[in-house]
Amino acid sequence: MNDLEHAKEKALSGELKATNETINAETIVKDDAANVSSEKPDVDPIDAEDNSAEDSSLREWAVNSDGSESFEADDNTRFIRKAPGIYVEKRIKDEWMVPRRICGPLRVAATAVNRDSDNWMLKLSWMDARGFTHSKVISKGDLSEGKKVVRLLLEGGLDIDALSSQTGNTDVIKFLLKHPVEKWLISIERTGWGTPGKWLILPDGTIVGTPEEEILFTGDRFMPFYEARGTLEEWQKSVAKPATKSSRIAFAICAAFAPLLLKFASACEGGFHFIGKTGCGKSSSLRAGLSVWSFADHTQPGCELGSWKTTEVGIETFADRHSNWPMFLDELGSAKASDVKNLPALIYMLVNGQGKRRGNRALKAARPMSWSAFFLSTGELTLEEMAARQNIPVDGGVKVRLANIPAVPDNVKDGVCDFLAPGEDWMKGVGDISEAASRKCYGTAGPEFARRLIEHIETNGGVETFKRRLSNRLKEWIDKSAPNAPQEVRRVGRRFALVAMAGEIATALGVLPWDSETASMFARICFESWRREYEQAESDGDAKGVPLAIFRAYPSKFAIGYEGTGQIEVMNETEPFIGYSILEEKNGEPVRMFLVPASFDQEARKLGHSGKNVVRAFRDAGLLINGKKDGPRRLASRFYKPPYKSMSHGPFYAFWVTSEMKDKYESASTFKGVR
Hints:
Distance between the termini: 75 Å
Oligomer: single chain
Radius of gyration: 34 Å
């Protein structure tokens, strides 16, 4: 028994107090007559008489001798459908009155229920005075607010003969409430896959593929707001082909196709974060990716280029509406400073795919929002760097769930383009792609990919065969790109592999105008950039312990100062001098250190680190003292003049030893000259 039959059986069962009458299945849904049971359901005999009048599923239009159609709403009311509209005929003292017109042409074209036979919806259809046909889906519960429904019909041009300030028009509402069920449909509230590999609903409500039963989309249309302009060929020429000049732009395009594959591959949810200075092309990469589904002009209403400048509920809603679709979030730095502390938890929530449990107005638990998240983000800083500026700890799980990719490739001085021909202007090329993605051609590649993917799956062995082949291709890509890598690297590699496979499938289906293995190459370049960034960050975590390790191993090579006293004690001037360690006077724990660059670098290398990497680690953690103000991704020489006249060996590298010591002494320090 399919879902539609199950829902119909429930609608006609004793649970909903149906009567003993049988059903003409042809009036419910085509091709289902043989599957509808005509057995008499059990009913409460006390309610049987009333149920006969109340159950619209058992009511039918009757053809009258004059060619009009009618149905009896109850013992004293009959509605008639004839030109030029709907009439009501009422019986008073056993005598039927002259029919009275109540409105223009109006009908309930279909009744829809979900797979649990809940959430009853009515698909209304009517004609306005100009001859245009309108269609609108309402909840059956809306009929309890008759004035609201009448207003909707009036705004759609329906001619209604009489109005009441309290109820709108009770006859029109009663007509809709008692209207015979002309067709049963299954209601779907969410876009995306219905049956993975067989059919899905695009954000505009269009159904791609062939559902097993008749479907009525009852959710918010254009949530997300996707629209198209131009042709696929124009998009290929203006966006996809030029994108091969940049591994980052090409990667973003491939990533826009990837969410449609999430239902066929486990453990691939997560995000990517392009990091780079302003004007390097990272936002243009997002625009190119967004053009797969819609326009990318953020100045226009409905643009799906989202922002991190939002509330927790806002990001939950955004994710819920983009389940099965890509999310694009521009500029992590736009998040409010007060919200930065929540960003790590927000990343976990996005990737885990479920929002917080909240109550509703009835003080009952509301259904938490849920989704499958696949998103691209940009920013001048990584989340870890933003958090470090406020001394907010970030665990390693965030680095796995949000993969940081430098927007500027390793072999490029400026910009996102790493495959330019000699003499090509990267800024012009990126600008042309961004302009086309924003205003000229967009929104054609994604829907076409969905159509061709469904056809491909159907004609090449079905869903299980496709899942098996995709799983094998993902493993092959990871084994080739990260052989013998740690588990966390392979986990993120799987997400990159899904992007690669999405690009390869789009290429094989003719949606991307690239050669085979081009998408894999771009994904691998971005993966390797992420891996270098990730492994450097892991190394930096160890690097922050280097100064303290050197001090404890060679205390005689340091001069000692004490917080609050401004006194310097020279331990042994005959030893090679590394620097000054400022201690807490009470317990002797190091608070901050001033290190001679050459001597410190020599000792750091003995522990497997360069002095430059140690400085970078302390910078990223927000523990450097003062220093030159430069860009967030640029590391200048961090040399500082001696902060106290007794310090004669400067300039120095200067660190707070830990964030706890910084919090404790930064504002209250009395060590002269040290800020």
